[in-house]
Amino acid sequence: MKLLVFLTLVAVATARPEDSYEKYENFDVEELVSNVRLLKSYIACFLGEGKCTPEGNDFKKWIPESVQSNCGKCSDHQKHLVGKVIKASMDKLPEEWKKLNALHNPDGKYDEGVKNFVEKYGQ
0.90 exceeded by the pTM? Predict the structure, then answer.
């Protein structure tokens, strides 16, 4: 479940360089994780329950692959950004995280990978 949140927000907090979204390399993750209302609005976007910013739309597109690959196309820096977002989502918005995880990881097969990812990159 943690992996799903992480990977979901990986898309929010980071971008894959090969997709020409290098502009998200310096995404202000601290602002996002410190503002519960903002974090909640991004998660609502990812769930299809709220409006999306242009960044949110980009991140939303990347979530499924990021969850499956454990952010395999992310730079190391982007993995740290994603890890922070996932950890904040899990800690501050556990119900929303559960919904997001259920959407992208319905059978829980990525739970262990997400947990390990957050432990490694979520600090």
Answer: no
